[in-house]
Amino acid sequence: SKLTSLGQLEMTWRSRVYFHPLLVRVLHKSRLRYYGKPEKKLDMPYQAYFEVADGSGMMSMVLWNSLCPEWYNSVKVGTVLLLEQYAIKTSYPFKTLPTPGDSQMKRFATIEISLNVRDPPTKISIIPEEMVKPEWGLPEVKYRFITRSELDDLPNNHSCDVIGLVTFVGRAERARKREHGEDFWLYRWAHAIDGTSDQPFILELFATSQPDVFEHIHPMTYLVCTQMRVVRDLTENPSSTIYLTTSNESQIFITGWHKGQPYTKDTKVKNFIQWTKTQSEADQMKKTVIGGYYPFPRPPNNFLKY
Fold first, then answer.
1. Which residue, of 1, 24, 141, 145, is most buried by count of CB atoms within 10 Å of its CB?
2. Are residues 164 and 122 in the same domain?
3. Residue-number span of the structural domain to which 52 is assigned
4. For the residues of the chain, what is the DSSP string, one character each?
5. What is the pTM of this model?
6. Does residue 125 sit in the same domain as residue 162?
7. Is residue 77 part of a domain?
């Protein structure tokens, strides 16, 4: 069929009612958002953002309502989609944006692709990777992996991806989303090492839309976290309280989930796997810890400072 590109859409969307099909690759995936309210009678008040790209650039794609339970788990980072009968809307200005792995890629930020059950009823098809042709010109998924030795030089809020061997994982804790609200964020702390430093990565992992992974992080698993943000305490001693926290587009993977993921081709990931082959499992097991209370950042040593 006759295809269009994201670049052409941006130029012609106002003058069209019908849009030709699109062929895109998913580069980023946000957590699932529930926006239900007691007074609104919506059956499935869900929404999820994806950043999709073709040869011309990258654009946001929004999955709405009952399409979320149907498609959210099947559409992964790296998945190639054929989209038909979609709508084009002006972009929502306050949404979070992931940092692209390819800094040269053009971002179309004024409009977004809207996928709905009706008006018009979108048709989504997943193209298996072995059927994807090079002449389609779809970009590869690129990452920004860092090693632990590089972390100390990175600025606050810098976006990166990490891989490490888990040595500590804390219990799940809750924090209120708002001061007097009923909603909570669920999170847990983890430490992971990669052999490039004596210090571990300190990771604040909020529950993303992957409960099956979040609940099964345990010592000695290979943990991959994408789209993490650097957090520095710029007031006290900057080097002592550097950690990484998840963002809206973070994805977490543990041993058993890595097969077929696009990051397995990344050089830093391959280097990490080589390093793990040189380690004794029994030695590492002795250093691992699980559960317990983990106060971080640490409170000051004396009460006056506190």
1. 24
2. no
3. 6-136
4. ---B-HHHHHHHGGG-SS---EEEEEEEEPPPEE---TTS--S--EEEEEEEEETTEEEEEEEETTHHHHHTTT--TT-EEEEES-EEEEPPTT---PPPSSTT--EEEEEEEEEBSSSSB-EEEEEPGGG--GGG-PPPP---B--HHHHTTSPTT-EEEEEEEEEEEPPPEEEESSTT-S-EEEEEEEEEE-SS-SSPEEEEEE--S-HHHHTT--TT-EEEEEEEEEE--SSS-TTTT-EEEE-TT--EE-TTS-TT-GGGG-HHHHHHHHHHHTS-HHHHHHT-EE-S---SSPPPSSTTT-
5. 0.91
6. no
7. yes
